[in-house]
């Protein structure tokens, strides 16, 4: 639709919705925009509290005139109606589209009463006053019509000087009609909007009904009584018991998670210790082999020590130029101390031996080889 393209942020975002497999799908997101403080400080007024319009006849504007833009004092009056029960982002997006249909738009929102809603659609979660108040606080709304009619009549359109009616293009069958907006479409006053997929009041109620026990237990924990929740005495005790069981399960789960974390930390520490032990063992083995291996330092040290010992023990060879035995100087004569007191005996006869007590003279040959 051409009217939707006038606003760059109109349909740039889509509601996240759950797929068939439970995963969420997300559409395009707009880029970052500068910070601003644009916003209303007061809720939208109710139509029955406004001053009556002037008596001038109200002339509707055509679609082309509305798209081109109207003077500031003559905005295009667009009407959107609904139940707006459990007001959610889908409602806000529909009103945002209605507000952005034309450059100069005055958005009027009609909210049906409880009597009409319960008669034609069913029971609501919020009462009419709560729904009126929720819509009036939407930033796109300029005026709220309370107790809006189920089917729009010419008198109602003329009373509120409505130019166009905004709603999604899906035929809305109700009150014995295949489409309650059929006559609006035929009159050329219909401006279609798009529904937001994945969010609706019925969806929200379905979630609550589906998880009924969870929400009942939640509210019981928050202080609501079983009478306020319309819960029997037996069911109340059952929910309290389930809550205690869940607490025990949570504690067991926490203990399991903590034990897993502890085991994981122990494994990490053991791996670190093993790695450090391997590094140290490699270093120790390398140092041991370097010292005591086949080509280690100890072998070289032993070789060097052995060589030095052999060199020290083995005598040196006499030089070739050393004097002969005859050329050597006579060796000095040494006498033993116990023979020094005896007087030198006369020369023994040639036939006597040295066993007769004659002093014995020892001649010690001293050489320079030692």
From TrEMBL:
InterPro entries: CCT (IPR041723), Cyt_trans-like (IPR004821), Pcy1-like (IPR045049), Rossmann-like_a/b/a_fold (IPR014729). One of its GO terms (molecular function) is choline-phosphate cytidylyltransferase activity. Its EC number is 2.7.7.15. The keyword Nucleotidyltransferase applies. It comes from the Eukaryota. Transmembrane segments: none annotated. The gene is PCYT1A. It comes from Myripristis murdjan. Residues 79-207 form the Cytidyltransferase-like domain. It catalyses: phosphocholine + CTP + H(+) = CDP-choline + diphosphate. Residues 238-265 form a coiled coil. It is an enzyme of class 2 (transferase). This is choline-phosphate cytidylyltransferase. Residues 1-47, 313-356 are annotated as: Disordered. Residues 1-11 have a biased composition (Low complexity). Keywords: Coiled coil, Lipid biosynthesis, Lipid metabolism, Nucleotidyltransferase, Phospholipid biosynthesis, Phospholipid metabolism, Transferase. One of its GO terms (cellular component) is endoplasmic reticulum. The lineage of its organism: Eukaryota, Metazoa, Chordata, Craniata, Vertebrata. Pfam families: CTP_transf_like. Catalyzes the key rate-limiting step in the CDP-choline pathway for phosphatidylcholine biosynthesis.
